[in-house]
Design goal:
The structure holds two protein chains of two kinds. Chain A has seven helices and 13 strands. By secondary structure, chain A is an alpha/beta fold. The mean pLDDT of chain A is 93. Chain B has a domain at 164-237. Chain B has 15 helices and twelve strands. Chain B is globular. The chains are: A alpha/beta, B alpha+beta. The interface between A and B is large, with 44 and 40 residues.
């Protein structure tokens, strides 16, 4: 039996993941033709590299089709209900930092806090006849956050990209999105609410609770964790 | 406690028995759709319903929901062709996502009994509660009751601005936000209210940002004016805050609560009418054979789980089985009928029972039926 390790298949997230493992003596690499998604693992036996879209890694971990996986902690929390019953965080990896935040037009001088947002939403609904729209692709995380903070009279509208543009395009009144520098938000005349972010995300190594573990794969995991400097 | 799987056929048979029982008490049997337009439900319950209900999509009709409860189709059916007074019963599946407690059923059968009768709300409340208590009398259940109407009357009686009262009423069903608002409007919140205003004024001094989106300058100006007025407004008195806290923490047997509330009404006379309704309901319950001397009443009961219940609320719980959801729940939902009826309100009270849980209790030996 082999330990399957899921890693983002492209871009900076893949490169940084490869670097992180290489610094700890586990050499991950892509093999075959440039566009072929296959990989190799050197430095440890019994581990297979599976290249996947970062957004599919939570699902694969939850289904137990991979034993370990690297993805953003935001994706795991948003895509998996009761995520901590399905996966375990083995190690925050120190890159891919991004905050999931709520932003509103900078012209809303009266709105800086969740209190303000709630009050603005109530008045907005009374005046416009529908709930204040927040554009996001992080439906689960945002809804749970707003519920926990008692914000009412809003609705989430789905936005899979260019979310910062939705307010100007009149398809939303506010946005909930990932930001690292805030430049895109500022360029689109939006400001971040002053509360703590909904979630501070970073690339994280997860272990599946549902994958099939044998004595052999468990032994491999122990070796791997030692190499990665992760205590039990 | 092991989870007991009960055959669906048995649950349906039990549901039919309960429905026949309610029919024998004068209720008309109703059938309702399983696939419902999502819009009405979303507008009523907000985004939270998406976390609880299964949403699907029809190419013609847009978003649809698998029936998360019977209340909305029930009220709509009554409003379109019901005569008053009316009593209804129904039985069928409801569908709920169970993200928080994945072991709970996401498809189960409910049997309902609903009374649309405005002649005597106290008596209608008692009729519904007694009907459920009798249907469940063979089971070892604990009943909890409450009355959202008392809380709403207390808020309406606060000697403060209409705006503050409305803000509190809006968050009756969100206890955490309700408490935060109480603090902000109290003497302890005076500084906070001034800080909020100062912050907005500081924002005004910054470079102007271009206006984007549907929310207008007028709406922003209106809110700034509201913040100004609220900062200048005296706080809700410590006395009234203390009375509100007394009401919120009431948890006793019904006669003791009634006596406490009558004392509170001396200082907060605006709740007198709601308290006398509670008194009449208590008498009506007693005259229907309910042991009111040992019936629990909790002023905050039903605030988190039952938005739109705005009067009497109740639930029946299996003793010693905190793992199980309530076997039956119900209450008065006049506010919901007024939202669905666009101003036309119909006094309505009712509840649902879960025959599957009754059978599960039998199977684990907790019931004697």
């Amino acid at each position: 039996m082999i330990v399957k390790l899921g890693v983002p298949s492209k871009g900076r997230l893949m490169e940084k993941t490869f670097e992180w493992f290489a610094e700890r003596g586990v050499i991950l690499s892509r093999t075959g033709a440039e566009r072929e998604y296959s990989g190799a693992v050197d430095g440890i036996d019994g581990v297979e590299l599976v290249l996947l879209s970062a957004s599919e890694i939570p699902r694969e971990l939850a289904a137990g089709r991979i034993h370990l996986g690297v993805t953003g902690s935001d994706l795991v929390r948003d895509k998996l209900a009761n995520w901590d019953s399905k996966v375990i965080e083995l190690a925050p990896m120190g890159f891919g930092h991004a905050d999931l935040i709520i932003a509103v037009p900078k012209a809303w001088v009266d709105v800086d806090t969740l209190d303000d947002l709630d009050a603005a939403a109530a008045a907005f609904r009374a005046r416009h006849g529908f709930r204040l729209r927040i554009a996001t692709k992080y439906h689960h995380l945002v809804r749970e956050f707003l519920k926990a903070n008692g914000v009412a009279d809003y609705q989430l509208v789905d936005s899979q990209g260019a979310t910062e543009g939705t307010v100007k395009n009149l398809t939303a009144e506010a946005v909930a999105d990932i930001t690292s520098t805030g430049d895109t938000l500022r360029a689109n005349h939006l400001k971040v609410l002053s509360c703590d972010p909904i979630h501070r995300s970073q690339a994280t190594l997860f272990k599946s609770r549902t994958a099939h573990w044998t004595d052999e794969t468990r032994a491999t995991l122990v070796t791997l964790k030692e190499m990665l400097g992760l205590g039990d | 406690m092991p989870r007991v799987d009960i055959a669906k056929a048995d649950v349906k048979a039990e549901a039919a028995r309960l429905k026949a029982r309610f029919e024998a008490q004068g209720a008309q049997a109703m059938e309702m759709d399983i696939l419902l337009p999502a819009e009405v439900l979303l507008d009523l319950y907000g985004e939270d319903i998406r976390a609880r209900a299964y949403v699907t999509h029809d190419p013609e009709q847009g978003e649809m929901m698998l029936r998360p409860d019977f209340t909305v189709p029930m009220v709509q059916a009554h409003m379109s062709d019901g005569a008053e007074p009316a009593r209804y019963t129904y039985a069928g599946e409801v569908f709920r996502k169970q993200e928080d407690v994945p072991t709970r059923a996401n498809e189960y059968i409910q049997v309902g009994f609903e009374v649309f009768d405005g002649s005597s709300p106290a008596d209608a409340d008692a009729e519904v509660f007694a009907a459920f208590a009798e249907a469940l009398s063979d089971y070892d259940l604990r009943a909890s009751t409450g009355d959202i109407g008392i809380l709403m009357a207390a808020v309406r009686g606060l000697k403060t601005t209409e705006r503050r009262r409305n803000a509190l009423l809006r968050h009756i069903w969100r206890p955490r936000r309700f408490r935060a608002l109480m603090t902000r409007f109290s003497a302890r919140g005076t500084e906070l209210r001034q800080q909020n205003l100062d912050r907005v004024k500081a924002n005004l001094k910054e470079a102007e940002a271009p206006f984007i989106g549907l929310r207008t300058q007028t709406e922003i100006d209106t809110r700034i004016k509201a913040l100004e007025e609220d900062a200048a407004e005296p706080p809700i008195s410590d006395g009234e805050i203390a009375l509100m806290n007394d009401i919120l923490s009431l948890k006793e047997t019904l006669p003791n609560v009634l006596s406490n509330l009558r004392d509170i009404a001396v200082d907060l006379p605006e709740i007198s009418e709601a308290v006398s309704l509670l008194g009449r309901r208590t008498e009506a319950l007693a005259s229907r054979g309910v042991d009111v001397d040992h019936l629990d009443f909790e002023a905050s009961y039903g605030r988190t789980s039952m938005e739109y219940y705005d009067g009497f609320v109740f639930g029946f719980y299996a003793e010693g089985r905190p793992d199980l959801p309530p076997v039956a729940t119900g209450g008065r939902y006049d506010a919901l009928t007024s939202v669905l009826g666009q101003g036309r309100s119909i006094p309505a009270v009712g509840g649902v029972i879960r025959p599957g849980l009754m059978l599960a209790l039998n199977a684990t030996g907790k019931g004697e039926a």
